[in-house]
């Protein structure tokens, strides 16, 4: 059955591009032997923004074998060089791209200890003006591509009895944001997925972290079609979010807000939704 919102497949999109052979660093370990001193991580959305900042932060820390994925091959290679990582440029909404990325990652760095799912896009404007193909695109990248990749990597973590999945959400998914209806819905789905998956994984040794940033100083706003023009709240740096991700991984935190005061509007909405909605309608 073809949905009215189905994205046209006749228009070719970016293709999965494996890195040059000299950029890949396949592991040479005997079967069944795993280096316990070096951890492995896959970061998506790593060609810019939060994903790039997380990649660089992990690279600075050392002790990580990193594979980075993103749609912009040129920028991704630059970030990979900064982080001493391996790049794999891919559009994860394309059929089979998630499997190719997973297979490449396992062949290059071995079983994954940490997945940071940072790939995401937005769209700004009234819902009635949003083109149907952009609805599909926002949901495909923010939700479906993330869930498919987690589904592929999670069995290895469960089998190993350790690992962590970090899902980059948004304040928009916690409270809803005017003129970002579909993006808010997508990030709300990510947050609910994080909660439900965490319950299922209890006792397996695998953790799930939901990172909830507010306004972040990245190219995200220009790409969504409308720059951020408010004086408050002030944007935080992508590096601040990356440090929060690192801290959450080290301390095993389930949910992190960046900045921390964002917990307040989320709690007000949960405790007194009517009051919150009246304030949001007035102050936007």
TrEMBL record:
Residue ranges annotated for the Ketoreductase domain, each copy included: 39-219
Keywords noted in UniProt: Oxidoreductase
Region spans: Disordered: 1-35
Keyword Nucleus: no
Pfam families on file: adh_short (PF00106)
Ranges of biased composition (kind: Basic and acidic residues): 20-32
Lineage top rank: taxon: Bacteria
Family recorded in the similarity comment: Belongs to the short-chain dehydrogenases/reductases (SDR) family.
Name of the protein: SDR family NAD(P)-dependent oxidoreductase
Organism in which the protein naturally occurs: Streptomyces lancefieldiae
């Amino acid at each position: 059955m073809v949905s009215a919102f189905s994205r046209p497949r006749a228009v070719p999109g970016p293709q999965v591009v494996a890195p040059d052979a000299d950029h890949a660093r396949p592991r040479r370990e005997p079967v069944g032997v795993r280096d316990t001193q070096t951890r492995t991580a896959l970061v998506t959305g790593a060609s810019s923004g939060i994903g790039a900042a997380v990649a660089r932060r992990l690279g600075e820390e050392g002790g990580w074998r990193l594979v980075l994925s993103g749609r912009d091959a040129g920028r991704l290679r630059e970030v990979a060089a900064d982080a001493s990582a391996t790049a794999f440029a891919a559009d994860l909404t394309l059929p089979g791209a998630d499997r190719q990325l997973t297979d490449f990652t396992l062949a290059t760095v071995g079983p994954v200890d940490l997945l940071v799912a940072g790939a995401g896009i937005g769209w700004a404007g009234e819902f009635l003006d949003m083109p149907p193909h952009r609805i599909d695109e926002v949901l495909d990248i923010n939700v479906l591509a993330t869930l498919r990749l987690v589904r592929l990597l999670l069995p290895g973590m469960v089998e190993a009895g350790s690992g962590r999945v970090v899902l980059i959400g948004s304040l928009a998914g916690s409270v809803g944001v005017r003129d970002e209806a579909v993006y808010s819905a997508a990030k709300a789905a990510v947050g609910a997925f994080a909660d439900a998956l965490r319950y299922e994984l209890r006792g397996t040794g695998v953790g799930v972290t939901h990172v909830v940033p507010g306004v972040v100083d990245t190219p995200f706003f220009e790409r969504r079609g409308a720059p951020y023009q408010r004086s408050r709240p002030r944007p935080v740096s992508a590096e601040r979010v990356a440090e929060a991700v690192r801290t959450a991984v080290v301390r095993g935190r389930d949910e992190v807000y960046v900045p921390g005061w964002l917990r307040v509007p989320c709690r007000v909405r949960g405790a007194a939704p009517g009051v919150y909605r009246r304030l949001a309608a007035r102050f936007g």
